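[agent] plan:
  1. take the single chain provided in the ticket
  2. run structure prediction with default settings
  3. attach structure tokens to the ticket
  4. add a short note for the reviewer (M.T.)
[agent] executing step 1
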Amino acid sequence: MNINYDLITLIMTSITGVMIAFVLLMSIYYLIYWSVSARKTEPVPHSDKLTKFAVLIAARNESKVISHILESLKKQTYPADSFEVYVIVEKESDPTVEIVKSFGYKYFVRDRLMDGRRTKGFALQECIDYFWRNEIQFDSYMIFDADNILEERYLEVMNDLRQTGVRVGLGFRNFTNANTNWLTIGSSVMFAYMNDVTSKGRSIVFHKATLMGTGYYVDDVIIKDAGGWIFTGMTEDIQLTSYCYYHDINMRYYPLVCFYDEQSPDFKTVHAQHVRWLAGYFQRRKFLKKAGVQHDYHSSGMLSFMNFEFNCGLIPFIIFNVVMSIGAIVDLVFASIGTFYVGPEHYGLLFGLAAFQFLLVYVSFALPAFITILRANDRINLTTKNKIIGVLTYIFFFYEFALAFIDGLLHPKKKTTWTRIKHTGEVTNKALKK
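[agent] step 2 finished; step 3 output follows
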């Protein structure tokens, strides 16, 4: 077979070198994040000035787990008369309602449940609209899910953070059941990375943060500026984050206080989540230019760079992995063909290059996972065995997003179908058992 294997080797080696340079150049801000996020976080000063919080918990049919968060709210060190709890349900007969009543908290029953309005974003919109219609005043809204658990100082520390001028803030998203299996381990590593590298780095460099599902507060004035709670897609957290970037709203991630979340150990459920998350990520841009007040915290040039980084941050990493994976497969194919027709002695370099490319892809996941686990393990509390599993399997957990992306393209309805996550109330994190 007349194939110039030396030329192929030269081309593939050059592509590998170019891609390494490309990902290093285009991801320079991530290297900065890794650097600055290693700094010790200084505690925010305690403030005697109090925020009137509305704690909003979307909890459709969540009677199995709702007690955990309500108990943690009862234990808050923040004055009880400075926050009100509203649990949002879809019908009065939901067993969750009786549990809420037993804790002495309030509940809100939704009445606009037509098709297309079943997301958490619409639940929050209806409840906040109810406040405004009835002139119930709050300074800020705290957003949680029914399976969350708060550290005792969570509201107190969020108030201290807000009194420093931060309009949207959150703490460390921790996990009640990280040790269950490789999926919960992968979730804990991914969110710990988003917490302690991406969000912490953005807070230090840009005064921005990445909202991750729940656990955050947002000031009432921000929602009023937007014309209401407009973040009603499949991922209201990323939509609000996008809005805050575009309008240059002061945000901060604060790692010295935690809230806890239960992660699903079921592959089918996790896959459905990932399909929705990706759909929401790509839909977020329509929220950038919604009506709202421009805060002009940064210069126009810096604001443009911040939005570029937020919108394109993962693209260099994705391109790198796709090109390296395809390149490794191409190298293997040509090396195998050459070995079959000519002999193995001439094609060792192509086999070696393929192995090097696969190794680069694997290390690009395993190394961040390893460092993240070292940084955050005192909080996520993985066992030694599960630390190893987390490093070894992180690439497979992350590549599941590729399957979710393809699934979403082939089955568009999955991108807008909300499937209830079955919570068990399992709590294995040692930090919650102290």
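[agent] step 4 note for reviewer: The first helix runs from residue 5 to 26.
[agent] ticket updated
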